[in-house]
Every structure is written in structure tokens, then in C-alpha cells.
Amino acid sequence: MAFNMRLGLLSILSIAVGALGCSKEAPRATGSAGSSSGGTANSSGASGVGGSAAGAAGAAPTSAADCAGKPAVPGRTPLRRLTATEYDNTVRDILADSSAPGRDFPPPSAGSGFSNDADAYQTQLPDVQGWVNAAELLAANYRKAGKLTLACAADAQNCASGFITAMGKQLFRRPVTDDEVASYLARFTAGSSNGGTFEEGLEWVLERMLLSPHFLYRIELEAVGKPVGTPVPLNDYSVATRLSYFLWSSAPDPALLAAADAHQLSTVEGVAAQVQRMMSVAGFTDTLSSFHSQWVQWSDVLGAEKVATTTPVWNDSLKADMIHESELFVKSVFASGGSFKDLLTAGYTFVNPALAQFYGVSYPGAGTDFVRVDMPHRAGLLTQPSILAGLAHPDQSAPIKRGLMVRSRMLCVDPPPPPMGLKIVLPTVTPGETTKERFAAHRSAEPCKSCHVFLDPLGLPFENYDEFGRYRDTDQGKPVDATGGLTMVQSKGMATDATKVPVNGAADLGAQLASLPEAEQCLVQNWFRFAAGHQEENSDACTVYSLLDRFNTSGQKLNDLLVAIATSDSFRNRVEVAP
Q: Running DSSP on this structure, what letter comes out for residue 105?
């Protein structure tokens, strides 16, 4: 689709230049959701917060004791652009348009965490092309749906002004200024003159609003002029925007904007009340799915291919069922006010007829709905088939992949990379030889031993689950040995011998992780990253330790952790930066 010529070449260039200017941010660190790249921990297994990530300044505190008596001041606040998902959710909720034009936006560069990592979004001209195409489509759809045919059209200017004020507040997530109203009224006049209609004039207005930096970026317009490094409280509308994109990945709803109008978001109590309300709204379920699918990689199952056959047939439908099962499980834990322990140890799941057949159990429901069932041999999130099947090979289980997920996503520690030039060959499935036996060679000699003593003991407890995520007692005709260990973990003495820190099976691993200080801290760090839109840095260390303390004080309640993040000084303030 070509650029909309009504905007004019000069307007397109000014939008592009303005967007590129808005995207000037600090250099980004690289890594993955849950990992330590950017400075959360190191490959030795020693835990800490902060480090060498971009924007970090000074030595990072290495424990909560280092933060005693120090305020948990806000860290770096990058300019955040709407992700494709946030864009689509926003226009769905405001314009009632589910065409999802964001699916055609260029993908972001590799970031240091989740898909909403601000440092992964450096605006280029292809992004601007995508925005222009989307604005044209959405504005035209809105007019064609009759939503710009207003009863007040006989009083064109006042009617248009009312539309600008109402729509602008929703799209910009704050009241529009008088200057903005005047500018958009001029746009309306241009569009409705010379043969144009009232509706076409408003279409031009909507199109331009959708191309405004105040829609595309989350611009926080607080008072400026304070000394660099000084915390600046966010205004109510900025807090509302942070809350809505944290908990819903979408724009504030009318109730949240009304709370901002009434200045109810300038207090901890007001924010906490909104968080509790927002966690009961359907959009929160989507956020839970987004966070957990990236954190523990259950979306990997969508690309997983298998060699053997299973019942039901391994296909996209079964994969989608597995993901929905995991989504329902996480939703259930949060809805019940569950804890980190519940998330990692609960012995139930959700099945429809296809998954009941997969598990080999009777379907207790009616029709095709998902229903909750107690499930033997399942214990919490990490034994969900979506995760186990995604972290497996086409013809066998994958203790290394599963161990890497636990090490990087649950403990926030990245293993050292393989030696340069090392040719990695997957052991061939051999009759009479278990997966654990086939992979034992990696742990017996260098150059593989130093890495695999770090990974394999965390993946081997999942050996009761085959490449489909099905439970098994035997592998190649032999009893499964699902013993492993919490090797190279600081609170466990940094043991390299798995027998010194034993784990026997996935249920035992989940139970031990639920009470492991490193895993508790890693969960807090990951939710902080998701909320802040960047990897934690030295300046964020005391904030993370404060959140960890509140998390433990609450009994590791997951909902309370999200309230703690949203009510923290870091979330409700930004730091003044040099102009």
C-alpha cells in the first residue's frame, strides 16, 4: 500500500524525522527473558542485581543489606514505543477494530528481555511506513463502520471539536491541549472542504492522531527543570498509562482515566486499588499469558516437530490446546491468590477431550470445554506439556534444553558459551540406551564437561517426560532415572557434584525451586523487567531488593508482587535527565 497522499510528502517526512528523534535512547544490552545478560548475575551462579548493562552507574549493591537506609530511587526510564501487540490491543479497545495491522510492522531488533523491551525498538523508516499504512486503514474502517456519522454534524466545528477532545484523550491517554484541538480542527477543515464531507474531515483527524508521537510513544509530560538525577513524580495520566500497558498491554479504560481525572493515582492507595480492579479484568489474562510464555518458553511448542506418532495426532490443534492449558493453569493460580509455590507445585491442570486423550485419562466434562482435573505425575508450571514438548528434540527428550531453561529463566544465570569451533552432535537414539546414558558423555570430559555439569543436572529431573511431554516410567526398556541436582547455586554452596545437592524428579525440582532464594529473586527480576521495559541495572538494584522483601513478606503471593511493583517509587516516578 502506498503512503496516503492526503498527508503530503512534507508531513510524512516530518513524522519520520520526529519519530526517529523520539527514539534516541541509551545503548541497549542484549540477552533473553530471564537471563542474566545486562548484569543480573554471572555464569558462576552468584546472584545479584545490576551490573554492566547500558545506563548503569557505579557499583551495584549485591544484597539487600547494601540498600539499608538508602531510598529505592527510580532507575533509567527509556522512551517506550507501542509494540505491535500493544498497538493492536489499543486500537481494538478504542476503535473496536480487530484487523490487527501491527502484525505487518517490522519486527524489533534483539532486546535484553521481553518483547516489550524498549531498547529493542529503534525507529526506522520502514516502521513509519507501517504506521502510515495502519493509520490509513484504521481511519477508513472507522468511517466505513458509520462511527464518524455524528448526530451533531449540523454544528460542524463544535461537533468536530467534541470528537477531537474525546478521541484525543483516549488515544493520547491524557486530555488534549487547546493548541492540539486547534491544530486538529484545521485538519478537519482541510479534509471536509473542497467537496469533502464531515465524515471525511474527521477521518483525516483520526488518521493524523494515529500518527502522532503522543499515540505511538508513551510520552510522559511531567514538569521539567529539576536537577539531573532528581526523582520526578509522574502525573496521574502517566501512571494510568504505565498501569494499563503493564497489566493489560493496552490503553487505559474509562475507569482508569476517570481515576486519573480525579487525581486518585497520585497515592499508593489509589494505585493499589486500581491494580486490584485491573487484575480482575479480562485483559489481565492476556498479560499473564504473554509474560509466562516468554519466561518459561511455552510458545516454543508451536514450532516443535516430532518424528514418532502419538494419539491424538501431533498437529497445530494439539499444540494450541497445550498452550491454552498452560494459560488456564496460570490464570487459575493468580485468580486464587496463589503463591510462587503454588505455581511450581500445584497438582492439577485443565483438559479438553483431546488433551484428556493425550494424558490417557477420562474426560470429565461435557462438550469440548476445558475443565480442571487433578493429574498424577504433574506438579506445577514446569511439568506442563507445552513447555516439555517445546523443549525437546523431534525424536527424544532434551535434558540440555530443559536444564538451560531452568538455569537461565528460573535462576537468571546464563551458562558460558560453547568453545569456539566446537561441533555439537546430538546423540543418536540407540535401542537399550536411555537418554540420560546417551548424554552422559557430555559430563565426563572437556570441552563439554564444564558447561554440562552446569546444565544437565537441572534438566535430567524431567526425564520422566518424553519428547511429547508424556509421562513415562521407562526409556528404551529401562527404568527412568530422573535424578539430578541444584549444581552451581550459591545458596547450595556452589556444588559441582549433583549428589551433594540432589533432586529426584520434576516435582522435587519444582518444590525446591519454590523455596530457593535465587529462584525467588529471579521471578521478581523478571516481573520488574516486564513492567519497566528494560533489563535491571545498577540503579535498579535497591528497587528489586525492596520488591523481593515485600514478595517474601507476603508469603510469595503472586498478585501481591504485581501490586508491589506498581506501587513502588520506581514505577510511579522517573528520574530527570539532561535535555
A: S
Helices (H), 124-172: 125-144, 156-172
Cis before 74 (ω within 30): no
Residue 202 CA to residue 179 CA, distance in Å, equals 17
Here the cell at position 190 is 482541510
Handedness of CA 468, 474, 477, 479 (dihedral sign): positive
**pLDDT tens by residue, 308-324:** 888 889 999 999 999 99
C-alpha cell read off for 234 = 509522574
Which grid cell is 249? 498491554
Which pLDDT tens digit goes with each residue over 437-485? Answer: 988 877 776 767 777 778 999 999 999 999 999 999 999 999 999 999 9
Q: Are 491 and 422 in contact (CB under 8 A)?
A: no
β-pairing, 483-485 vs 502-504, is antiparallel
Cα angle vertex 104, ends 174, 112, to 5°?
70
Per residue in 85-132, pLDDT (tens digit) is 999 999 999 999 999 999 999 998 866 679 999 999 989 999 999 999
CB 301 within 8 A of CB 319: yes
Q: What is the mean pLDDT of residues 140-151?
A: 96
Which residues sit opposite 484 in a β-bridge? Answer: 503
Distance CA 211, CA 204 (A): 11
Angle 348-395-380 (CA atoms, 0-180°, nearest 5)? Answer: 15
Interatomic CA distance for residues 333 and 291, integer angstroms: 14
Angle in degrees, 0-180, between the axes of helices 558-566 and 541-553, rounded to the nearest 10: 140
Q: At a CB cut-off of 8 Å and minimum separation 6, what does 484 contact?
A: 403, 456, 457, 458, 459, 460, 461, 498, 502, 503, 509
Determine which helix (DSSP H) or strand (DSSP E) holds 349, and give its type and residue range.
strand 348-351
Indicate the average pLDDT of the chain.
Answer: 88
Q: Does the pTM of the predicted model rise above 0.70?
A: yes
What's the confidence (pLDDT) of residue 579? 67
Instruction: Transcribe 478-525 into DSSP letters.
Output: EE---EEE-TT-GGGTT-S-GGGSEEESHHHHHHHHHT-HHHHHHHHH
Contact between 397 and 462 under an 8 Å Cβ cutoff? The reply is: yes
Closest to 255 (Cα-Cα) out of 267, 243, 266? 243
